[in-house]
């Protein structure tokens, strides 16, 4: 057996980062917020992670994606995130999708689709032309957390 180089780069999977976003969604759930979590990643490093805090902050714009993007801008000290991926447990709304446009994100990965309020519902091309999108990573887990949250609200 050969000795492993200490410079070997470990590549984490989309599932790995989405699991961290799901942990954020659970934090939101426990805080009685709509359970959505987001993580911003660059070169296999987490720059920021957040969950919805609309109720806590009394701010309709305090979505997980918006908070994670703001923290990532702060972390890198710039207004663009061209080499970053946003992992989010629910399809971004129109506001969050537009924020990713201005951030010039290279990629968005989301778990569950939002047929009612997701950005794709509006048919507008709200993402930056260079942004790639992948969907369905841990979709079932994300949907279960959301369904449980809304079922509890109706009790």
Give structural attributes.
5 strands; single chain; 155 residues; five-stranded mixed beta sheet
Architecture overview:
The protein has 155 residues and is of the alpha/beta class. 39% of the residues lie in helices and 19% in strands. It has five helices and five strands, in the order H-E-E-H-H-E-H-E-E-H. Strands 2-1-3-4-5 form a five-stranded mixed sheet. Strand 3 (84-90), helix 4 and strand 4 (107-112) form a beta-alpha-beta unit. Helix 1 (14-30) runs parallel beside helix 5 (139-154). It starts with 13 loop residues before the first helix and ends with a helix. The model has no long low-confidence stretch (mean pLDDT 92).
Tell me the layout of helices and strands:
Layout: H1 14-30, E1 37-42, E2 45-51, H2 54-57, H3 64-76, E3 84-90, H4 94-103, E4 107-112, E5 132-135, H5 139-154
Helix pairs in contact: 1-5
Low-confidence stretches: none
Overall form: globular
Count the helices. How many? 5
Number of strand segments: 5
Strand order of the largest sheet: 2-1-3-4-5
How much of the sequence lies in strands comes to 15-25%
Tell me the series of helices and strands, N- to C-terminal.
HEEHHEHEEH
N-to-C terminal Cα separation, in Å? 59 Å
| Oligomeric organization of the protein chains | single chain
Overall pLDDT score: 92
Helix content: 25-40%
Radius of gyration, in angstroms, nearest whole number:
16 Å
Which secondary-structure class do the elements indicate?
A: alpha/beta
How would you sum up the major sheet? 5 strands, mixed
């Amino acid at each position: 057996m050969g000795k492993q180089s200490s410079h070997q780069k470990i590549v984490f999977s989309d599932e790995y980062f989405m699991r961290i976003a799901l942990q954020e969604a659970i934090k939101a759930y426990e805080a009685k917020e709509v359970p959505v979590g987001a993580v911003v990643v660059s070169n296999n490093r987490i720059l920021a992670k957040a969950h919805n805090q609309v109720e806590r902050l009394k701010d309709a714009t305090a979505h997980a994606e918006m908070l994670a993007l703001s923290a990532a801008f702060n972390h890198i000290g710039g207004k663009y995130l061209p080499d970053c991926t946003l992992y989010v447990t629910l399809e971004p709304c129109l506001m969050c999708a537009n924020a990713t446009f201005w951030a010039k994100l290279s990629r968005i990965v989301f778990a569950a689709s939002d047929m009612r309020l997701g950005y794709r519902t509006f048919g507008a091309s709200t993402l930056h032309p260079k942004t790639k999108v992948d969907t369905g990573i841990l979709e079932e887990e994300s949907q279960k957390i959301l369904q449980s949250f809304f079922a509890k609200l109706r009790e």
